[in-house]
Amino acid sequence: MAASRLPPGALSLKQFLRRQQVLRLYRQILRAIRDVPAEADRHYLKDWAREEFRRNKDATEEDAIRMMITQGNMQLQELQRTLKLAKS
Q1: Average pLDDT of the chain to the nearest whole number
Q2: C-beta of residue 72 within 8 angstroms of C-beta of residue 25
Q3: Torsion angles phi and psi, residue 6, rounded to 5
């Protein structure tokens, strides 16, 4: 078998795509938090999001990562629904 041209420690395609998915979710959450009217709540939610992502940054098990992404998407949708209701 031919030697890989990738440097050691390089991400596989699947890992790269999963990483992009996580970063996209993080950015979406931070963007949604910008719409929170109270500054104290915005600060709390931003700190919460940063801490959650930081706490799980070393996760490597594929199933666990997929589960965390699913939970993050559900929390993002809940935040967006709550903000939409607050504006009505």
Answers
A1: 92
A2: yes
A3: -80, 140
